[in-house]
Write a structure and sequence with these properties.
This protein is mainly alpha-helical. It folds into two domains: 114 residues, no CATH class; 104 residues, no CATH class. It is 65% helix and 4% strand. It has a two-stranded antiparallel sheet with strand order 1-2. A hairpin with a 5-residue loop joins strand 1 and strand 2.
Length: 226
C-alpha cells in the first residue's frame, strides 16, 4: 500500500494544527489545565502545561506513524490496497477525534465551558458511525477490524462478522449521540454496557460462523516424537 501527499495532507494539517495551537497557547496557558471530566461534565482531573498542551498532539503523532507502519508489518499487507480508502478514512477519523478533544481543552483554557457531557458522547458516537462504514470495506488483515482466531482463519467468518459489526457499531453510535443530546447518564451507561455485550456477541458469532465453514483453515498441529 502506497501513501501519497494526496491522502496524507489532511492528516498532516490536523497534526500541524495541534502543535501550532500548543505553541500559540503556551505563553498564556495556566499551570493547571483540565484533562478529564466526569459523566456529569465537571472537571475531575488536571495536568500541567506540558501534559495539557502536548500529550494529545504527541499521541496523535505516534498513532499517525504507527498507522503508517501497520501495512508493512502485517503479513497480509497486500490486502491493504483493497481497502486503501477505508484505511485512510479510519486514520483521519481517529486523528480528527483527537483534534476535536484537544480543541475542547483549549476552549476551557480560554473560559468557554462547553458542555462536555454532551459533546464527548456525540463525538464518540459519530466516530462509531464512521467506523461502522469502515468495517464494511475492510479486508482480512492482522490489525484493523474484528480480529479473532476465527475471522483470521475463515473468509466467511471475516465477512459475516464485519457485516454484523456494522450494525452493532451503528446502533451504538446512534445511542451515544442520543445520550449526548439528552445528557442522559443512564442512557450513556446503558450504551457502555451494550458495547461490552456487543463485543462478546461478535466474538461468539465469529466462532459460530467459523465452525460451520467447510473452507476454514484448521489449526496447525505439531506432533512431537521421542
Amino acid at each position: 500500500m502506497r501513501f501519497t501527499w494526496r491522502t496524507e495532507w489532511p492528516l498532516w494539517m490536523l497534526l500541524a494544527g495541534m502543535f501550532v495551537l500548543a505553541a500559540l497557547t503556551w505563553p498564556s496557558a495556566p499551570d493547571r489545565i483540565p484533562m478529564h471530566w466526569g459523566v456529569d461534565g465537571q472537571v475531575n482531573g488536571y495536568g500541567g502545561k506540558l501534559e495539557g498542551l502536548l500529550l494529545i498532539p504527541l499521541v496523535a503523532l505516534i498513532l499517525y506513524l504507527f498507522f503508517l507502519a501497520l501495512p508493512k508489518l502485517d503479513p497480509l499487507h497486500a490486502n491493504y490496497a483493497r481497502f486503501a480508502g477505508a484505511y485512510t478514512l479510519f486514520r483521519f477519523s481517529i486523528l480528527l477525534f483527537l483534534a476535536l478533544i484537544y480543541l475542547l481543552i483549549h476552549l476551557w483554557i480560554r473560559g468557554y465551558r462547553a458542555p462536555v457531557n454532551m459533546v464527548i458522547p456525540i463525538l464518540v458516537g459519530v466516530l462509531f458511525l464512521i467506523l461502522a462504514r469502515v468495517l464494511g470495506r475492510v479486508r482480512p488483515n492482522w490489525f484493523v477490524g474484528i480480529r479473532t482466531p476465527w475471522t483470521l482463519s475463515s473468509k466467511l467468518a471475516w465477512t459475516k462478522t464485519h457485516r454484523v459489526a456494522q450494525w452493532v457499531f451503528t446502533i451504538l453510535g446512534l445511542g451515544l449521540i442520543l445520550s449526548g443530546i439528552l445528557r442522559s447518564i443512564a442512557l450513556l451507561i446503558g450504551v457502555i454496557a451494550a458495547t461490552a455485550v456487543g463485543t462478546f456477541g461478535m466474538i461468539f458469532y465469529s466462532y459460530v460462523v467459523w465452525r460451520d465453514d467447510p473452507e476454514r483453515i484448521p489449526p496447525s498441529v505439531t506432533l512431537h516424537t521421542d
